[in-house]
What does this fold into?
Amino acid sequence: MRFIDSHAHLDMLPHLDQALAAAKEAGVEQIVTIGVDLESSRAAAKLAAAHPQVFASLGLHPHDAEKADEGYWREMEALARRSRPVAIGECGLDFYRDLSPRPAQRAAFARQIALALELGLPLVVHDRDAHRETAAMLAEHDAGRVGGVLHCFSGDLELARKVLDLGFSLGVTGVITYKNARALRELVRLVPAERLLIETDCPYLAPEPWRGKPNQPAYVARTCAGLAQALERPVEEVAALTTANARRVFALPRPGEA
It folds into this structure.
């Protein structure tokens, strides 16, 4: 079986070469590594340039939205134009921790939607306890023109339908393997399987039986198995499906293609 880890933070892994080797052995063909600020976006672009199986998404997480002034945005946008990322983000809204003021979060989200539209790239969207406003901003700013993924989807069926109608997909993490994730397992059965991606969000959210330990891209295979169990479909079928879904969302080449 072959897999794509559609959301990883490779720059946070202490033993990257080992993690990449383990991912290859587990059948992980491609990885999208995610920037959450200017420094990690630069690191993501560098990793993508160094490893043919790695692709970069560049963005500013809502936690750090307050630190972005105009000069910061000029640097971020210049990086995005020259480094050929596959997406913009991780961007969005986080009203759970509120580590940046909400007006700053909204402004940073809007700025990144505009950049994605300008570059014709999909969005990697973070939404935590901001479901209604996240969907509203995506609609208001015409983000459906580029689509993307709501990473680590944590909303209900109403939110899922809204963002699916805008052309977005839903990212499924190792959370789907947790005993208390019954609502998520029920939800994935109610949405089109062609709009589901699997991701690790490593080093966070390791699936069972590694819950609470550092996550790595190789573990996306276990997330795929958990999703297949929830969908009551063969894991080989779900692996192929989610791989095709990720390739479509991020316009990824097949391994070996230029």
In short: The mean pLDDT is 97.
